User: Fold this.
Amino acid sequence: QHILALVKGMQAPSLTVARAELSNDRPRQALELLGEFLAGEELDHDGIELFLTATEAYGKEEWGLGLALGLAQRDDRVHLLLARTLLSRSYPKEARELYEQFLERNVDDAEGLAGLIETFAILKNQPGLLNAVETALRAHPDDSALRSLCAAALAAVKSPQAKALELVEQLVELSPLEL
Assistant:
């Protein structure tokens, strides 16, 4: 705490101490350290992720999600972070909305498309999944990680439509050894 008083206003040392507080199972103290930066909306991507983790550990996850929703409208990295967080915490419908909003501003972004594909697969939304896979393959035919994600999502489709089978064939043609 003495060191923090000396470097007051510096984000990096505060984040380090906040991480230590979390690892010592003291989320309230971590939130207090992060509060100074939240007031000025100065937290970077890592700080926001740490804040989301601390609010979850403190049992007030809605605080973190509320803050992140506000910041997501101004920062695309935060927007993706929040979408991933929602998806990982079993809020796929809300994650889908955020991925779709992000892709409206960042058309054909590989990370946004990957998240949307995962989300549609979880929601078992075959039409949405097929459209997202088709867009991803058109926009990023050389992205092997994205192709693998598309293949895995399509493989999980039960009773696939003809379009799904066409997309699987397209994936095999693009990279037969990867699949």
Q: What stands out?
A: The mean pLDDT is 82. The chain is about 75% helix and 0% strand. The first helix runs from residue 2 to 6. The CA atoms of residues 73 and 79 lie 7 Å apart.
